[in-house]
Structure formats: structure tokens, C-alpha cells
């Protein structure tokens, strides 16, 4: 089966994490990239470490990875940085849409299966059954407002 390239998109967030608000929708909803997966059925675990440089540049290791359509993937994410980070796995247009919402409501709590917000030093996981039919682009949005 042909491999599809997935991209990671991240936004550095300042302030207290998970303070208030919530996305519409939430776990169980289908997204362009896939839908919530069953961790017991994961065929691949990808470990991602998030950090930042002194000048605010976001660093993510790895920044790109390959999965197959229909594969269930668990992504273990560690925020080894000093600021809060958000991890979002989606198509570029959806990432930019999400960025606009986050600019309006920076303290919103996340309930989407394809994203997680982590305070510095914390770890978390997302698990998705991948449905992409084409490559997603790597997008590291500029943390400044659009």
C-alpha cells in the first residue's frame, strides 16, 4: 500500500493552559485527516518531542512521518520546551482556520481528537485512524496574528 505523507502543525501558546472554552465538536468526529482511533488497534507509535529556541522558533522531532491510509496511529507527544505548545494534525487549510480561532480564544480547551495542548514538561497522546487520500503539507504557522 502506498505511503502517505502526514504533516505536523504546531502553535506555541503563552499563558495558562486549558483555562476555559472548548472547541465545537470533539472526540468521535470525523476529520479530513481521519477519525479517533482505538489505541489497542494502533499499528504504529510515533514519538514527537516539541521544544523551542530562545528566539521563539518551534522545533519538532520528527517534523514529518509516513503512514498508510487506513492505518491506526498513536502519536506520543512530549513538550520538552519551556512554553505551552499545541499539536494539531490536519490539512493546511484546517490548520490556518484553527489558528484564527486560537487567536480569538487563546485559552480555549481542546476536545478534538486530532489535537492536544500541553504545558511545558507535560506529555500526552492522540490516536487516529488515518483517512487521507493525498499528502498533507508541513505547516508550522507563524505564532504572530494573521
Automatic annotation (TrEMBL):
Pfam families: Cupredoxin_1 (PF13473). Keywords: Copper, Metal-binding, Plasmid, Signal. One of its GO terms (molecular function) is metal ion binding. The keyword Signal applies. Residues 36-102 form the EfeO-type cupredoxin-like domain. SUPFAM superfamilies: Cupredoxins. Residues 1-19 form the signal peptide. PANTHER family: AURACYANIN-B (PTHR38439), COPPER-RESISTANT CUPROPROTEIN COPI (PTHR38439:SF3). This is Putative copper oxidase protein. It comes from Rhizobium etli (strain CIAT 652). The lineage of its organism: Bacteria, Pseudomonadati, Pseudomonadota, Alphaproteobacteria, Hyphomicrobiales.
Amino acid at each position: 500500500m502506498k505511503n502517505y505523507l502526514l504533516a505536523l502543525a504546531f502553535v506555541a501558546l503563552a499563558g495558562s493552559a486549558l483555562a476555559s472554552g472548548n472547541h465545537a465538536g470533539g472526540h468521535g468526529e470525523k476529520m479530513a485527516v481521519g477519525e479517533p482511533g482505538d489505541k489497542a488497534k494502533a499499528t504504529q507509535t510515533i514519538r514527537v518531542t516539541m521544544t523551542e529556541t530562545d528566539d521563539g522558533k518551534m522545533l519538532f522531532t520528527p517534523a514529518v512521518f509516513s503512514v498508510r491510509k487506513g492505518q491506526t496511529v498513536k502519536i506520543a507527544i512530549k513538550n520538552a520546551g519551556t512554553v505551552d505548545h499545541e499539536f494539531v494534525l490536519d490539512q493546511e487549510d484546517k490548520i490556518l482556520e484553527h489558528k484564527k480561532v486560537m487567536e480569538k480564544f487563546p485559552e480555549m480547551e481542546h476536545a478534538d481528537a486530532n489535537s492536544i495542548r500541553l504545558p511545558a514538561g507535560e506529555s500526552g497522546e492522540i490516536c487516529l485512524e488515518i483517512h487521507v487520500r493525498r499528502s498533507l503539507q508541513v505547516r508550522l504557522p507563524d505564532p504572530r496574528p494573521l
